[in-house]
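I'd like us to work through together how a protein chain folds, taking it slowly. To get us started, please write out a protein record for me. Go ahead whenever you are ready, and we will take it from there:
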Amino acid sequence: MTKPKGNIEAAEEQLVEKTISSETLFNGRVFDVQVKQVELYDGSAARREIVVHNGGATIVALDEDMNIYLVRQFRSPFEKILYETPAGKLEKNEDPKVCAIRELKEETGMSADKVEDLGFMYATPGYCAEIIHMYLATGLHRGEGNPDDGEFLQVIRIPLKQAVEMIERNEISDAKTSVAILKTARRVGI
C-alpha cells in the first residue's frame, strides 16, 4: 500500500525537470559549459545552460582577539579589488576541508589547530553547479604564504564585528565571504 502524498511532495513533482539530452559546448581549465534540453512538468521543453564547476572551499581564519584575516584581490569580471576569505577551487575528488586548509596556507601563510565545518552554499544556482564549502579556522599559527602563479593578494586583519558591518554596507560583497563571515559571527555570538 502506497502512502498518500502530502501537499509538499505533490507540489514538488511540478518543480522537477527531466533531462532529455545534454551536450558539453566548452571544456575549460576552471569550468565547462553544458547545454541541457529538459522536459517540464506540463510536458513542454526548455533549454538550460549550465556552468559545470568542481566546486570550491573557503575558510574564515579567526584569531583569539576575534579578528579575521581576509585577502584583497583584483577580480576581472568587476574590474575592482574585493575583500574575500581565503578560497580556492577543488581538484577533482578532493576533500573540501583539505582544499580550505591548503588555501589558508597558500594565501595567508597560516595554519590552524582546529578547522570546523560551516556548511556549504550554492554560488549561483540559476546557471552554475558550483558548491562552495565553508570552514572556520581557529588556533592560528603564522607562516609564509605561497600564492599560485599569477595570484597577487594582500592579507588584511579586520575585527569580526567590523567585517559584519562591512557586509551590511556592501563593502564586503563577495557571496561566499559574506555567508562564511555571517555564519562565523553567529557561531561565536556576534
Remarks:
- Residues 56-187 form a domain with the Nucleoside Triphosphate Pyrophosphohydrolase fold (CATH 3.90.79.10).
- The chain has two domains: 7-53, 56-187.
- Strands lie at 18-27, 31-39, 45-53, 56-62, 67-75, 80-84, 87-89, 111-122, 131-141, 154-159.
